Amino acid sequence: MIHKITSEEVLKYLGDYLQLSLNEIKDLPERKGNSFLNGSYYAFVECLEIITIFWDKAHLYDLDFAPEERFPLD
Q1: How many angstroms separate the CA atoms of 21 and 47, rounded?
Q2: Nearest by Cα to 52 from 5, 19, 6
Q3: Which of 51, 70, 40 is nearest to 13 (CA)?
Q4: When you count CB atoms within 10 A of the terminal residue's CB, does the N or C end of the chain come out lower?
């Protein structure tokens, strides 16, 4: 049976997951030449921006930062 969690827990989990994924993709040498990896990276940064900008409790979970500074879109 699936354990239900609150929307706050979902946003916290999603913020952590996005950062983990971005850290894994960020320094991959093949990212620049791989449109799937590069597109995923951009999409994950955009999703993380939505959480950090619009979620009023982001600061409680260390999600109050500028994603594009931590994960540059080069």
Answers
A1: 12
A2: 19
A3: 51
A4: N
DSSP labels, 12-73: HHHHHHHHHHHHHHHT-GGGTT-HHHHHHHHHHHHHHHHHHHH-TTGGGGT--S-HHHHS--
Cα separation, 24 vs 17, whole angstroms? 11
Q: How far apart are CA 70 and CA 60, in angstroms?
A: 18
Spatial separation of the C-alpha atoms in residues 20 and 64, rounded to whole Å = 16
The tens digit of pLDDT for each residue in 29-53 reads 998 889 999 999 999 999 999 999 9
Find tokens 């994960």 and name the residue. Answer: 71
